[in-house]
Amino acid sequence: MNTDRALVLQFLQDGRKPAAITSNPLAHELGGELLELDTEGGAAVLAFSPPPRFVQGAQVLQGGVVATLLDFAMAFAAHATLAAAERPFSTATLNVSLLRPAPPGRYLARGRIVRAGRSLLFADAMLTAAADGRTVATASAVMPLAEA
């Protein structure tokens, strides 16, 4: 079983208490925490506190790290959507809009499934600074589902 899916199922069984994302080494390195899941609406809220090693020369998070945080939010929203059925998926397209610099700090990544078809999931996500709620970046993705 996918380790992120296992974490999602454990989160749901444990009363939806915030939990460190230990299921994925990269999410763990980025200080990831699972805060909320909506299995009916297909949404997830994650928090991240990337350590200084992910900051580039201009003293802001590297753009690829920002994209990764958004991708994790959409993936966890997909796991929430598929909680009742084990259907593997992957990210086929990822479109990211970097709206402002992301200085070191804590961020909230909100992902949701906009549309779930038989073979594709369509998702979007938003990354906000936890300190002031300002939007740093947005993303959209298409995620193909493996055959059932």
Give a description of the structure.
With 148 residues, this protein is α+β, with helices and mostly antiparallel strands. The protein has a single domain (3-144), classed as Thiol Ester Dehydrase, Chain A, CATH 3.10.129. It contains three helices and seven strands. It has helices at residues 3-13, 25-29, 63-81, and strands at residues 19-20, 33-38, 43-48, 93-98, 107-116, 120-129, 135-144.
Q: Can you tag this structure with a few keywords?
A:
alpha+beta, Thiol Ester Dehydrase, Chain A, 24% helix, 34% strand
* Quantity of strands, as a count: 7
- SSE sequence, one letter per element: HEHEEHEEEE
What is the CATH C-level name?
Answer: Alpha Beta
By secondary-structure content and strand pairing, the structural class works out as alpha+beta
- Count structural domains: 1
Low-confidence stretches: none
CATH architectural designation? Roll
| Order of strands across the main sheet | 1-2-3-5-6-7-4
Overall morphology: globular
Helicity, in percent?
10-25%
Q: Roughly how many Å is the radius of gyration?
A: 15 Å
**How many helices does DSSP assign?**
3
**Between the first and last Cα atoms, what is the distance in angstroms?**
15 Å
Quick check: average pLDDT?
95
The name of the CATH topology is Thiol Ester Dehydrase, Chain A
CATH superfamily: Hotdog Thioesterase
Largest sheet: 7 strands, antiparallel
What is the percentage of strand-forming residues? 25-35%
